[in-house]
Amino acid sequence: MQRLRALALQGTELERASAATIRVRLLKIGAAILRNTRRVRVMLASQHPLRVLFATAASKLAALGL
Q1: Cα–Cα nearest to 40, from 58, 28, 25, 26
Q2: 2-61: pLDDT as tens digits
Q3: What are the b/e assignments for 11-25, b being 16+ CB within 10 Å?
Q4: Which of 9, 19, 43, 61 has the maximal Cβ count within 10 Å?
Q5: How many helices (H) and strands (E) does the chain have?
Q6: Closest by Cα among 53, 46, 45 to 21
Q7: Which pairs with CB-CB distance under 8 Å and at least 24 residues apart come from 49-57?
Q8: What pLDDT is attached to residue 66?
Q9: pTM for this prediction
């Protein structure tokens, strides 16, 4: 959780959040997972209030190769 905060959440509203807050607000959300041979797609609800933050954090982690 510390590395997630340090690498992907810098400059966001969850930058200084506790591990429990990050888990509840960002990681413990409903999503549909579609998996095929080459990629995994995470489909969030279109009305989720933190969907942009989730996408930003995921793209930062993907750019790092994590």
Answers
A1: 58
A2: 888 888 998 888 989 999 998 888 888 778 889 998 898 888 877 888 888 888 898 999
A3: ebebeebeeeebeeb
A4: 9
A5: 3, 2
A6: 53
A7: 50/25, 50/26, 53/12, 53/13, 53/14, 53/26, 54/26, 54/29, 56/8, 56/12, 57/4, 57/8, 57/9, 57/12, 57/26
A8: 67
A9: 0.70
